[in-house]
């Protein structure tokens, strides 16, 4: 296997591809920006409402806290953490892509063009991570969302079926006690 080296064709390719991948990543990230902002505002407002219940030494019930702040749940905190992880990974990938772009442009502009194996491998890694991020991260998000939605539908269906059984048992009990 030959080692990866910086060449004019390779540098030109990286210099052309890296900004495109970066642009797609920024567009994708911008779509999640408002979602993250809404999450933080919602959590801040809900936290204030929950804290107000504890004002002046009051000890509210669990239900009162849940009624005042219904979005303070483990699943909403997980979504917030996942959004923060998403943004952090996007920034990391963006920084790598910008560095790859600058390395190739400076290599192309330089008067002494060595093989520079490290920069060539770094650029390949940065572009590969960028491609992986813009390809696989949305797939993971869609897959996890559909899994969560499916689980919620199954849970809701179980509750409906249980309620129907309870109603049928109640009616059967009512019919037998009414016949006496």
Index terms:
4 helices, 180 residues, single chain
Fold and architecture overview:
- By secondary structure, the chain is mainly α.
- It has one domain.
- It is built from four helices and no strands.
- The longest helix is centred in the last third of the chain and has 63 residues.
- It is elongated and about 100 Å long.
- The N and C termini lie far apart (90 Å).
- The model has no long low-confidence stretch (mean pLDDT 81).
Summary of the model, kept short:
This protein has about 180 residues and is mostly helical. It is built from four helices and no strands.
Shape: elongated
Query: What's the number of domains?
Result: 1
Biggest sheet features: none
> Given the helix and strand composition, which structural class is it?
mainly alpha
List SSEs in N-to-C order: HHHH
Total beta-strand segments: 0
Tell me the strand percentage band: under 5%
Give the distance, in angstroms, between the N- and C-terminal Cα atoms: 90 Å
Residue-averaged pLDDT: 81
Helicity range of the residues?
over 70%
State Rg. 28 Å
Low-confidence runs (pLDDT<50, min 5 residues)?
none
- Helix count? 4
């Amino acid at each position: 296997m030959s080692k990866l080296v910086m060449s004019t064709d390779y540098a030109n390719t990286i210099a052309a591809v890296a900004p495109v991948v970066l642009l797609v990543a920024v567009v994708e990230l911008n779509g999640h920006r408002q979602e993250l902002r809404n999450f933080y505002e919602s959590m801040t407002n809900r936290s204030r409402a929950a804290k107000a219940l504890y004002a002046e030494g009051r000890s509210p019930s669990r239900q009162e806290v849940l009624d005042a702040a219904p979005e303070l749940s483990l699943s909403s905190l997980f979504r917030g953490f996942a959004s923060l992880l998403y943004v952090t990974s996007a920034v990391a990938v963006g920084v790598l892509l910008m560095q790859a772009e600058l390395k190739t442009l400076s290599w192309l502009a330089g008067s002494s063009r060595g093989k520079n194996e490290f920069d060539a491998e770094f650029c390949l890694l940065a572009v590969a991570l960028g491609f992986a991020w813009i390809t696989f991260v949305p797939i993971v998000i869609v897959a996890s969302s559909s899994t969560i939605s499916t689980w919620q539908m199954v849970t809701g269906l179980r509750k409906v079926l249980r309620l129907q059984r309870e109603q049928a048992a109640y009616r059967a009990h009512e019919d037998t006690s009414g016949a006496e």
